[in-house]
Design goal:
single chain; alpha/beta; Peroxisomal Thiolase, Chain A, domain 1; 2 domains; ten-stranded mixed sheet; 13 helices; 33% helix; globular; fatty acid biosynthesis; 3-oxoacyl-[acyl-carrier-protein] synthase activity; 3-oxoacyl-[acyl-carrier-protein] synthase 2; Beta-ketoacyl_synthase
Length: 412
């Protein structure tokens, strides 16, 4: 089995259009949540979101090609270009066949679907663009990244709701571990801040309606939480076999030592209140790493700011770690960037790797009123400096799907 390491991370988030800016603003406690500008949301009960600001796809993609990409694909390609540049990786010759791409997407091209359906209803089928299908399909993020990077190995898309990004990293890790590839670009991307996307989630009463105070609307693990805030963006990791990374002199940020996946087998949208499925995913990742649960220092939580998820995740952590749960520093990045759906796991894994590489744990913003049912250490006082050896990154999604990545501080 190959050892698998992380040699780069990249991100496009509501608090920064690159990983360095995003990380800086995350540690500073800056919020990316504001009133929606993408469309007129005045008739909606929820009118706030974590939008990407001042993003120009032409900085990364030729104009003609950018016009034939949905926004989530543009984010993924931009993140991949920054990832390739930061890691110094160039794929040439036969090496391209040993490099692959797995990028998770939850919903895909809603904006294009809405626009083209309006054209169809108004003007008939002859007005539909011939690029309609290639633009909207979820695997086009991975496909376009493969084209731009020239990676000719596995080219896949995980579509597992809000666990898509995490499952993609897990699958990429497995491919390298089993020697199917030397290099994998992996993570998640999403952009569904559209009228239809918002209408669907508001109909479920899943979104926060704290419209008068956007920056504190996302309140993971807080007693006053009233729903999640939708975000958009992408987060990618560069994974390599340790031998490949060493051979090219790459900087190593962390090691991947475990991946866990499970199903609640319970309900379309709600986890069981005992958090059993979430616990199984965390236990599986820890078991694969062959470590004791007491060795985990940090958890980058799914932490959506919904009543049920945060309660269940807290119970699951207690189930897995027992008394040690109180000693674990837990961060919920969604308090500042919102919930990126299929992109969440990629961005949050990137932040978990940054924690291992820098020794800084981000805080969880908007911890205003303590919830007696959520009584762990959520880093409510902001960032803290701490030497972290093992960090878990959790993602859970509709359909009862759960994913967990376990990263380790790199040691030769």
């Amino acid at each position: 089995m190959n050892r698998v390491v992380v040699t780069g991370v990249s991100a496009v988030t509501p608090i920064g259009n690159d990983i360095d800016t995003s990380w800086k603003n995350l540690l500073a406690g800056k919020s990316g949540i504001a009133e929606i500008t993408a469309f007129d949301a005045s008739e909606f009960t929820a009118r706030i979101a974590g939008e990407i600001k001042n993003f120009d796809p032409k900085e990364f993609i030729p104009h003609k090609q950018a016009k034939r990409m949905e926004r989530f694909t543009q984010f993924a390609v931009a993140a991949s270009q920054m990832l390739m540049e930061s890691t110094g990786l160039k794929l040439e010759g036969d090496a391209r066949e040993r490099a692959g791409v797995i990028i998770g997407v939850g919903l895909g091209g809603l904006a294009t679907i809405e626009k083209q359906h309006t054209k169809l209803a108004k003007s008939g089928p002859r007005k539909i663009t011939p690029f309609f299908i290639p633009i909207i399909i979820g695997n086009m993020a991975a496909g376009q990244v493969s084209i731009f990077s020239e990676a000719q190995g596995p080219n896949l898309c995980m579509c597992t709701a809000c666990a898509s990004g995490t499952h993609s990293i897990g699958a990429a890790y497995t491919d390298i571990m089993l020697d199917r590839a030397d290099v994998m670009i992996c993570g998640g991307a999403e952009s569904t801040i559209t009228p239809l996307g918002f209408a669907g989630f508001t109909a479920m009463k899943a979104l926060s309606t704290r419209n008068d105070d956007p920056e504190t609307a996302s309140r993971p693990f807080d007693a006053g939480r009233d729903g999640f805030v939708m975000g958009e963006g992408a987060g990618l990791l560069m994974l390599e076999s340790l031998d490949h990374a060493r051979a090219r002199g790459a900087e190593i940020l962390a090691e991947v030592v475990g991946f866990g996946a499970s199903s609640d087998a319970y309900h379309m949208t709600a986890p069981p209140e005992d958090g059993a499925g979430m616990a199984r995913a965390m236990n599986a990742a820890i078991r694969e790493a062959k470590i004791d649960p007491s060795e985990i220092d940090h958890i980058n939580a799914h932490g959506t700011s919904t009543k049920l998820n945060d309660f269940c995740e807290t119970k699951a952590i207690k189930k897995v770690f027992g008394d040690h749960a109180k000693n674990i520093a837990i961060s919920a990045n969604k308090s500042q960037i919102g919930h990126l759906l299929g992109g969440a796991g990629g961005v949050e894994a990137a932040f978990a790797v940054k924690t291992l590489a820098t020794g800084i744990i981000p805080g969880t913003a908007n911890q205003i009123e303590a919830d007696p049912d959520c009584d762990l250490d959520y880093c409510a006082d902001g960032k803290r400096e701490q030497d972290v050896k093992y960090a878990l990154s959790n993602s859970f999604g509709f359909g009862g799907t759960n994913g967990c990545m376990l990263f380790k501080k790199f040691e030769d």
